[in-house]
Amino acid sequence: MGLMIPKGETTLFDFNSPETSGQWNIVNDGVMGGISQSNITLNADGIATFSGEVSLENKGGFASVRTALSSIPPKEFKGVMVRLKGDGNIYNIRFRTNRSFDGYAYQAKIKTEKEEWKAFKIPFTDFVPVYRGRTLQNKPPLISGDMAQMGFLIADKQAGSFELCLDWIKFYD
User: Fold this and answer.
1) CA dihedral over 20, 164, 54, 104, signed as positive or negative
2) What is the CATH number of the domain that holds 102?
3) Which residues form the domain of 99?
4) Percent helix, strand and coil across the chain, each rounded to 5?
5) CB within 8 A of 135, min separation 6: which ones?
6) 9, 55, 95, 122: most buried by Cβ count inside 10 Å?
7) How far apart are CA 105 and CA 66, in angstroms?
8) CB–CB of 104/37 below 8 Å?
């Protein structure tokens, strides 16, 4: 008999310890000459904070953080849930189906409320394939079994300081 996974929710990250917070990497517009800055920190309350400054100078304008997804259970999930506190900006939740640095991603936008914790539940069918800000056609649908990376991105000419606090990230079925 195979591994039984309970129906409902599966926690990917809860940020309560280094073991459950993942290894997140910063990728900013410096890869194309921009000067935006960001970092991610984990505090004692089990909250990860992605923050920094987006600059539109030098044709820049984005900051992002991403992590490898190495332990997704062997089942198909319907979507992702995330509990976060934002700053009123719009953020993209992104998934990639490969481990490469560049390439297309699937993204969904979330509008945060300033200083307000909110939980978002987004079906994978709402994620759109994009490459460098352009929507792509003729890509396969996003399914959890194909995911290799997950991340958050702020772009869309939202210059200035930003702060996104993450409590947990889960998949649901």
Assistant:
1) positive
2) 2.60.120.430
3) 13-172
4) 10, 50, 40
5) 128, 129
6) 95
7) 11
8) no
